[in-house]
Amino acid sequence: MAELGVGSASADPRDIWQHFCAAWPLFDGTASGYWLRSELIEVFGIDDSLIDEAHADQLYEQLVSVLATPEFRPRALFDSFGIEVLATTDDPLDSLADHAALAADSSFRGRVLPTFRPDAYLNAHAPGFAERVDRLIVEAGDGAHGYRGYLAALANRRRYFIEHGAISADHGVRTPLTLKLSDDEAERLFDSALRGGLSAAERDAFEGQMMYQMARMSVEDGLVMTLHPGSYRNHHEPSFARFGADTGHDIPFAVGYTEGLRPLLNDFGTAAGFHLVLFTLDETVFSRELAPLAGFYPSVFLGAPWWFLDAPDAMLRFRSAVTETAGFSRSAGFVDDTRAFCSIPARHDASRRVEASFLARLVAEHRISEARAAEVMVDLVDAAPRRVFKL
Amino acid sequence: MAELGVGSASADPRDIWQHFCAAWPLFDGTASGYWLRSELIEVFGIDDSLIDEAHADQLYEQLVSVLATPEFRPRALFDSFGIEVLATTDDPLDSLADHAALAADSSFRGRVLPTFRPDAYLNAHAPGFAERVDRLIVEAGDGAHGYRGYLAALANRRRYFIEHGAISADHGVRTPLTLKLSDDEAERLFDSALRGGLSAAERDAFEGQMMYQMARMSVEDGLVMTLHPGSYRNHHEPSFARFGADTGHDIPFAVGYTEGLRPLLNDFGTAAGFHLVLFTLDETVFSRELAPLAGFYPSVFLGAPWWFLDAPDAMLRFRSAVTETAGFSRSAGFVDDTRAFCSIPARHDASRRVEASFLARLVAEHRISEARAAEVMVDLVDAAPRRVFKL
Amino acid sequence: MAELGVGSASADPRDIWQHFCAAWPLFDGTASGYWLRSELIEVFGIDDSLIDEAHADQLYEQLVSVLATPEFRPRALFDSFGIEVLATTDDPLDSLADHAALAADSSFRGRVLPTFRPDAYLNAHAPGFAERVDRLIVEAGDGAHGYRGYLAALANRRRYFIEHGAISADHGVRTPLTLKLSDDEAERLFDSALRGGLSAAERDAFEGQMMYQMARMSVEDGLVMTLHPGSYRNHHEPSFARFGADTGHDIPFAVGYTEGLRPLLNDFGTAAGFHLVLFTLDETVFSRELAPLAGFYPSVFLGAPWWFLDAPDAMLRFRSAVTETAGFSRSAGFVDDTRAFCSIPARHDASRRVEASFLARLVAEHRISEARAAEVMVDLVDAAPRRVFKL
């Protein structure tokens, strides 16, 4: 919300909370507002009528006292939220020591899995790209230098992640472009990238070529490939300079999957066991591109409406746009991508209500039987994510 | 449906049917599922509760026995379906002998019309383009060679089609681009095309220039021009290599009509008697481009939601998107493009229900009177296609 | 409506009215139809059942007699419509004498404000561009020649408009492109533009650079900047040649705000007091670009659905698309852009009904309380336009 201001004057959490409570009206009708309200009521036991600026102090005290109870320790919440699997996204060179420790801890029975997230090693315009890649080749390579060593190191780290429980590789890319280049061309781009010499078009080509390579590796090692294109990152340079990445000014733009994904899908689209989950911030592609792609390619699954589209009306538009072409079986089911642990129940609850609402409409319109709708509902919530993410 | 697999192992129709019945749940919520279920129940008299995998054998026997009855002979179905006009799409060099025979057969009173479909003679990248064009010029030309002979041959075959009852020329093009080129430029592109020397951009330019020529001929000979752009044909090369065209992997992409159609519309958009019916697979153009174009140009009509968009929710989105700008009078009405004869009643039934549902909402919201809604409903179903397609 | 024909044979208003009444059925379901019917009934007191071709003569007499009454003098309507502020759009060199006279007239208490609309001085391909710019520099400059004199003259005229009550500067541009050029580059483009030497791309670059300058001036002088991109003006050349601009053949096309506005927003997006109201004819940008931009940049406000999108269903799509990301507080509220004085009540009434309908759905779905919905409703109609347009 723009009115919340970028950078609060005070770092005192009580002041921030006061400031936040004053801003409640700005959240009316927004996805964030629905989640936050649901979270306060359902998780923290706050009375709905107290959620306003006037009761900010009282709420603050209540939250502080609740957070100090044993029921609000992370593992207790993990249990009470009924979480079965939680996946983090991790740097390819991360030791995954925390994951190993948790997996070895017999007092914790949940699954917390790492996810291979190599964006910073594939985006040639990311700050520090060359140093990072050098370190990757040195630390994880097979002794080879240059492009060949780079590919080997990525494959090695994927294997390391799999050994630590990873089931997917996640890719935040600028566009859905994929490219199959000759080794020579790929090597030439790679060498240029290390010298910081790529144009904007070459940067996209290199990333597209690396998406092709990531798909090839996924076919080999079985990691589910998830793709998140179409966000103009760090749109406001002064905010980026002051606050860094992921500070609220990533803005979507129009992208094309049909032509962009063709090289990848031509070679791997029907590969046995390959799962490619496509996400988008451009909802025009739901009916035009994603549903037809998922309707044909056995590897392609429809990711849940994501980010700005992870909201009630947008989720209904998604279902309306894709179902008539791709049915329900090509959906990956709901996966929240929250960084707010306590919002997990609210987000799954919202998704389930919306899916149920969509199915209820089809039942009311005699387009699906009530019995089948009930089966589909359970499948979307439970079986689909297990099936698609190989859980 | 991706799960149905590409290429069944068995060619035994009973096995295929069994395989298909096992896949019923995948069709829930899809347009194909609605049509198939409606067809089995309404046309074949199957009980709804038997449509599942468990009753596959029983259904198979029932279908085989029903199909052997005289009521299921094509002409009997033509009558019982209440079809008045059925149009095929035909190669420009087709002799249309079957159409002539049927027209001469006094025992058949329906109208089965040929449609001039010259795609393979206009798309310079289609396999066999040069040979096909050579044959066209030799068999249907006026003795002239090259580009001039080509245009003459196309005009001649259009005339031949009209003599055999054709009322429209149908064009499946890559994009809505149209171009008015000088004769010299057009000739140069044509000569290059015959030598297989066109770049991708020149291929589009040649097709765009030929759409301009097709519109010019439609203005002269009165054939209704229908345009179907925006599908990436044969997206999956391995499937194309193995199974050929039209095997389920044509994927839509974003296209622009406003700039693309301008050359054609500047010269022919207000030409007396010219009818141009625009179809799309990119629903973003409904409100942005197609409705405004149809609102201004007397020649432009809105084609029914097509292919992936020929489904209940998508049809409602179409009406919602175009009506507030273009009203109802600029619609071409429903025309199914099925290759499944027995699905014709289901598809028209679906379309009529959706149109009625849209109008009912406007009545309920006091946006149109019930009396006018009833008139519009009949017009959309009956009068509009007759008027727009000059039937 | 295409059937109304371009250019009626008769200039007799009674004939035109007769012609128009015969066309009533074409307006069913359209925004124009809703406004016109509402206007006839609510403003002119016509009985709904008389609005048809058969009663055209009777209606004509009634309208003529009503229009002759004192209650239908412009100022009387201004009062009875409850208009508080009406803004015209004016040429930068307009003397604004009429505005001054009206402001000085103590018998009129409404506010009629000029709006700075410099399109014809910024679009280098507009006929007469060079002559117009020369005149601007001579009449309103500070003595400097060329680009510097041009900028000074524009700033001077903005100041003159502000002195005459203007609160905003309105920009109808081809695309949302903005550019920050060096003074040398800007000067070079400007000099080329005066000689008529700009390519299509350079014309866009020059306009984009001038949008950057207009934003800079808005930051300085406080005029609210409104942006209306995305219409292909004068699509049908023969109609333009015969009837001139604004004769019904401006057709929208796809545009991108995210990348286009970045240079402007990087420098001015968080500038204190700067208000940038974004309009669009491409509704795909509502959820993808405009809501995220308005959610981050304190200067960006969402303009009301405009032109083809200023209609009930389209307005509901707008609210559904933007609210879940940007809430209600980033909306500029409804501003009609009618050139038909008597349609003003109908247009505001339509907008209010639709906003209320959207809020009522959220209340029914327990997404907002009824009390808050009532507050939001008043804010959207009353406070938001005052706040955003600094009234």
From TrEMBL, chains A, B, C:
Task: Give the Gene3D superfamilies listed for this entry.
Answer: Metal-dependent hydrolases, uronate isomerase, domain 2, chain A
GO molecular function terms noted in the UniProt entry: glucuronate isomerase activity
Enzyme Commission number: 5.3.1.12
Q: Which UniProt keywords apply?
A: Isomerase
The record ties this protein, via InterPro entries, to: Metal_Hydrolase (IPR032466), Uronate_isomerase (IPR003766)
What reaction does this enzyme carry out catalytically?
D-glucuronate = D-fructuronate
Mind telling me which Pfam families this protein's record contains? UxaC (PF02614)
Q: In which pathway does it act?
A: Carbohydrate metabolism; pentose and glucuronate interconversion
Q: What class of enzyme is it?
A: isomerase
PANTHER family the record matches: URONATE ISOMERASE (PTHR30068)
Similarity-based family: Belongs to the metallo-dependent hydrolases superfamily. Uronate isomerase family.
> What is the protein name for this chain?
Uronate isomerase
Protein's organism: Arthrobacter russicus
